[in-house]
Design brief:
With 130 residues, the chain is mostly beta strands. It is 13% helix and 41% strand.
């Protein structure tokens, strides 16, 4: 039984509904630590992504079960809940389904650092979202 409503939302959608696309891009994430008294950040290296979730690796081993992906200069934030950790990989579900055009653009990026600084939302299919 999940101990947090975010995990329950993610597990309620545990069946695979979308095609996973390979990608090789870095994203910033942030999460609370020490209860909610501190905000920590880290980077994830995305290995694949879909409208419903992602698979990634990180050098940080203390990433909690719930975190936020920050796209650009915190222009677009995606809530995530980890559903599995295995062999240094993190599998996470998005709390809310992401636009297909955005996921397709992420999968097509060749610059791994493209999402770490300010973005132009219209180029990423995020017009009206970010």
């Amino acid at each position: 039984m999940p101990n947090n409503y975010l995990t329950k939302i993610a597990l309620d959608r545990a069946e695979r509904q979308w095609e996973r696309r390979k990608c090789a891009v870095l994203v910033n994430i942030f999460f609370t630590s020490k209860g909610v008294r501190e905000v920590s950040n880290a980077q994830l290296r995305l290995l694949n992504i879909s409208e419903g979730g992602l698979m990634a690796t990180s050098r940080r081993l203390d990433i909690p079960d719930h975190f936020y992906v920050s796209i650009g200069a915190a222009q677009y934030i995606i809530g995530c809940a980890i559903v599995n950790r295995e062999d240094g990989r993190i599998n996470a579900r998005f709390i809310k389904e992401q636009p297909t055009v955005f996921i397709d653009v992420l999968a097509s990026l060749t610059d791994p650092f493209a999402l770490l600084e300010e973005i132009r939302p219209v180029l990423y299919g995020l017009e009206g979202h970010a």
